[in-house]
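Suppose a colleague, Dr. K., hands you the sequence of a protein chain of 119 amino acids and asks what its three-dimensional shape might be. Before reaching for any lab equipment, you can write down a predicted structure in token form. Begin with the sequence itself:
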Amino acid sequence: MMDKKVLDYVAGKTHELLEAASCNQETAQTAKKWLAAVGTAQEKEATAQYLADLKNCIMPIDGLIAFAESAAGEQVFGKETAAHIAAHAHEIKAAGAVYCDCPACAAAKAILDCEKDLL
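The predicted structure, expressed as tokens, is then:
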């Protein structure tokens, strides 16, 4: 059983993740399964799956830049928004960011930062 303080923090970040418009459906399902498994015999397995999913879905900053600067990024976001996202991504990368800082990625990073305390 994990430390209650860590559990409360990660549960809060999980709710932030679920509320983020940028959270994908698969990650939302895994997050909900984790929340449901906390305190049960399935907690350890659900935690491992949740962390693996977060590692797969968090957007590396270089991936965000490449997508925002691509034709596909312009198609998804619109030309002006894609340019704004790319500029922001370059700015946060220059400041040391490794990942996208959208609400979903920020919550995922906060949860992943607790990995050693969760396993």
